[in-house]
Structure formats: structure tokens, C-alpha cells
Amino acid sequence: DAGVIQSPRHEVTEMGQEVTLRCKPISGHNSLFWYRQTMMRGLELLIYFNNNVPIDDSGMPEDRFSAKMPNASFSTLKIQPSEPRDSAVYFCASSLGQTNTGELFFGEGSRLTVL
Amino acid sequence: AQKITQTQPGMFVQEKEAVTLDCTYDTSDPSYGLFWYKQPSSGEMIFLIYQGSYDQQNATEGRYSLNFQKARKSANLVISASQLGDSAMYFCAMREVAGANSKLTFGKGITLSVRP
Fold first, then answer.
1. Is A104 within 8 Å of B47 when comparing Cβ atoms?
2. SS3 state at B84
3. Residue A8 touches chain B, beta carbons under 8 Å
């Protein structure tokens, strides 16, 4: 079975450019999460969706960040304009609401470097 | 206040020995779940084990077990018979709201190195 699929795996861009990260959750999962991982701050939740609706976006750093989930099989995280401090690994994860544990299944991450 | 605290510095264990990774949590929600994830150097996040706040017994999954002490608000991960492949970063996480559609809050993680 396909897991959570993220693209691109690596992105190097210059400050001021727009960055779009993409995620395809596991088919049938109804919750989707975007996390950011840095050495300094660890794993931070940016936003999560339930049935394609944003539930909690309190972790989104600022207006430069936006996320969408137009359908159950696709989500994007956009940074515009990007800054060097946005350099991090961005993880997408999904979960199935009906499981007892509700564990998150993570994608392999998108490593972003902003020069 | 931090929701999940993992304060151990890098941990070292001899191959085939057992090791305990500490995790304490803070919540006033009577219903919550605790999770452990492994992140090897390749970067992926691997789910290891889950403990619900109302579970009567400590969770076990193969060589992984969770030492759940509710009154102390601790959920330590025990890895038995360590293997070289256990060398990784380990994260403790908590979900506070009953049900599966809610966020996990992660600790800072602990680095485990297994020595041959």
C-alpha cells in the first residue's frame, strides 16, 4: 500500500521565492497534518485538516504560510515569500479517524533550504 | 509549560541490553493518548507504540514496552535486547482530545546510540 507521498523531497531556493510543498495522504484517511522540524524547535504542528477542513492553524508562523486541502487526496503548503529561517524539514502526516490509536502516518518529508 | 518533556541527553546502550527512554507529560484532560515514534538517520518517522490514558495494562509491541505511570504523568519507553538498528532519535508525543482527529504534540526527542 502506498504511504503518505510528499514532493519535492528536496528544495533549494532563494530568499523571496515562492515555495509549494505537496502531499498525498493515505487513501481513506480523513485527517491530514503539516509539521515542521528544525534542530532548534523540534517538531512543530503547523496546521491540520479534518475531512478537508482546516481545524487548527495556530501553528502557522505568519501570513507568509498558507495551506490548502482542495480534496481528500491532496494538500499543499505554500510559503510566499520564503526566508532563510524557513529552512527545515516539512512533514505531512495522515491518520484514519476510526482507528483506536489514531497514530499518524508520516511522509518522508520535504527538506527545504532557503538561501 | 511544555506538554511533553524529554530531558535525557544522548543515550548509549550496549547491544543486547535493555534501555529506558524517559518521557513526562502535562495535561488536565482525563482522556489522552501517548505515542512513541522512531526517527532513524534516514529521516522518516516510524510509529512504535501507543498507550491510552484509560488502558489498564502497559502497552507492548515486540521489543518495545511502555512503562505508564499515570499518577507521575510519565510514559517511558523500554527497548529490550537492543539492536544496532535501534540507533535513532526517539520522540514521545501526546494527543489530548479523545478521538483520532486531533493533533499530536511532540517532545524534543532523545538520541539513542547502540554500541556493538
1. yes
2. helix
3. no
CA distances from B26 to A26, A41, B95, B97 (A): 31, 19, 11, 13
CA distance A31 to A66: 17
Query: Rounded to the nearest 5°, which phi and psi values hold at A80?
Result: -150, 115
Residue B56: partners with Cβ closer than 8 Å, 6 or more residues away:
none
Q: CA of A80 to nearest chain B CA: how many angstroms apart?
A: 25
Per mean pLDDT, which range of A100-104, B29-33, B75-79, B100-104 is the poorest? B100-104
Distance from CA of B43 to the nearest CA of A (A): 7
Max distance between CA atoms of chain B, in angstroms, equals: 42
Smallest CA–CA distance, residue A52 to chain B, in Å, is 12
Using the beta-carbon criterion (under 8 Å), do A95 and B106 form an inter-chain contact?
Answer: no
Residue with cell 482507528: A99
Angle at A56 (CA atoms; ends A53, A59), nearest 5 degrees: 135
Band of pLDDT at residue B31, cut at 50, 70 and 90: confident
pLDDT digits (tens, 9 = 90+) for B67-101: 999 999 999 999 999 999 999 999 999 988 765 56
Interface with A, mutate which of B39, B64, B101 (most A CBs under 10 A): B101
